TrEMBL record:
<dbReference type="InterPro" id="IPR051782">
    <property type="entry name" value="ABC_Transporter_VariousFunc"/>
</dbReference>
<dbReference type="Pfam" id="PF00005">
    <property type="entry name" value="ABC_tran"/>
</dbReference>
<feature type="domain" description="ABC transporter">
    <location>
        <begin position="2"/>
        <end position="231"/>
    </location>
</feature>
<dbReference type="InterPro" id="IPR003593">
    <property type="entry name" value="AAA+_ATPase"/>
</dbReference>
<dbReference type="InterPro" id="IPR003439">
    <property type="entry name" value="ABC_transporter-like_ATP-bd"/>
</dbReference>
<dbReference type="InterPro" id="IPR027417">
    <property type="entry name" value="P-loop_NTPase"/>
</dbReference>
<keyword id="KW-0067">ATP-binding</keyword>
<dbReference type="GO" id="GO:0005524">
    <property type="term" value="F:ATP binding"/>
</dbReference>
<keyword id="KW-0813">Transport</keyword>
<dbReference type="GO" id="GO:0016887">
    <property type="term" value="F:ATP hydrolysis activity"/>
</dbReference>
<keyword id="KW-0547">Nucleotide-binding</keyword>
<protein>
    <submittedName>
        <fullName>ABC transporter ATP-binding protein</fullName>
    </submittedName>
</protein>
Length: 233
C-alpha cells in the first residue's frame, strides 16, 4: 500500500508538489494525469526516495521511505518511460543480472518462464536487447517486477511511445499484477488507458491533486471533458 501524507516538494520557493494526500491500496491501479510539469514524476520520485520531501511523508506498506529506504525499495519495482537495460545482453541475461542484484535467485528455466508470462515472444528471450522494441523492453521490466515479487509498482509514463497493441498488452500485464494484489501508481498522459485500466484516477495541476475519483464513476467522455476544462482554467 502507498500513502502520500501532506507530501510536498519545494525547489526554492517553487512548490513542485503541494501537500499531496493519496492512498493506493492492494489491487488498485492509481493513474496520475496532468500536463507537463504538473508534479507526476516528482510524486513517483518521492516514493522512490530519489529525492527528499520538503514536507509530509511518502509511505510504503507503513514505512516512511526516507527512514526505511532499503526496506521500501525491496517492496517495489519501478518502470520508467525508458527502462535501462544492457543492450548487448539478452532479455534473459538482463533479467538474470537484475534479479542477482536483489536477494532472489532463479534457475534459467524459471527466468524464461517469467519472460514468457510477461508476454515476451519466446524467440526473443535469447536475443540482444538492442534488437527489442520499446514494448518488449517494458515486458522485461514486468518480468523483473514479477521476479522480485514486488507488492508495489511505480510507473512513470510506461506506455508513452508504445503503439496501441503494445500499450494494450502492457495494460493486460498491469491487470494481471492487480489480480495478484499489487498496488500500482502510474503517471501517464494516456486518458484512455487511465480510464480503461486504472481503478482510480487523479488529475494534477501545478503540483496540486485537484481531482481524484474511482475510474468506474466517470465515462471516458466525461473524463476527457473534466481534464480539458482543468487544463484550460
Ligand atoms: N531539480 C529540479 N529543480 C527545479 N525544479 C524542478 C526540478 N525537478 C522538477 N522541477 C519542476 O517541478 C515541476 C514538476 O515536475 P515533474 O517532472 O514532476 O512534472 P510531470 O508532471 O512529471 O511532467 P511531465 O509530464 O513533463 O513528465 C516542474 O515545473 C519542473 O520544472
Amino acid at each position: 500500500m502507498l500513502q502520500a501524507i501532506n507530501l510536498t516538494k519545494k525547489y526554492g520557493d517553487f512548490r513542485a508538489l503541494n501537500s499531496l494526500n493519496l492512498s493506493v491500496n492492494e489491487g488498485d491501479i492509481f493513474c496520475l494525469l496532468g500536463a507537463n510539469g504538473a508534479g507526476k514524476s516528482t510524486t513517483i520520485n518521492l516514493f522512490l526516495n530519489f529525492i527528499n520531501p520538503s514536507g509530509g511523508k511518502a509511505v510504503i506498506n507503513g514505512l516512511d521511505v526516507t527512514e526505511h529506504g532499503k526496506a521500501t525499495k525491496q517492496l517495489l519495482s519501478y518502470i520508467p518511460e525508458n527502462l535501462m537495460l544492457y543492450p548487448n545482453l539478452t532479455g534473459l541475461e538482463n533479467l538474470d543480472f537484475f534479479c542477482g542484484l536483489g536477494d532472489k535467485s532463479y534457475a534459467k528455466g524459471q527466468l524464461e518462464e517469467l519472460l514468457i508470462q510477461s508476454g515476451l515472444q519466446p524467440d526473443f528471450i535469447r536475443k540482444r536487447v538492442s534488437s527489442y522494441s520499446k514494448g518488449m523492453r517494458q515486458k522485461v521490466g514486468i518480468a523483473l517486477a514479477r521476479a522480485r515479487e514486488a507488492s508495489v509498482l511505480l510507473l512513470d509514463e510506461p506506455t508513452s511511445g508504445l503503439d496501441p497493441k503494445a500499450s494494450n498488452e502492457f495494460s493486460e500485464l498491469l491487470l494481471e499484477m492487480k489480480e495478484k494484489g499489487v498496488a500500482t501508481l502510474m503517471a501517464t498522459h494516456d486518458l484512455f488507458r487511465a480510464k480503461d485500466t486504472g481503478t482510480h484516477i487523479g488529475i494534477m495541476k501545478e503540483g496540486v491533486l485537484i481531482e481524484q475519483f474511482a475510474s468506474q464513476d466517470v465515462s471516458f467522455q466525461d473524463l476527457e471533458k473534466m481534464y480539458l476544462k482543468h487544463m484550460h482554467n
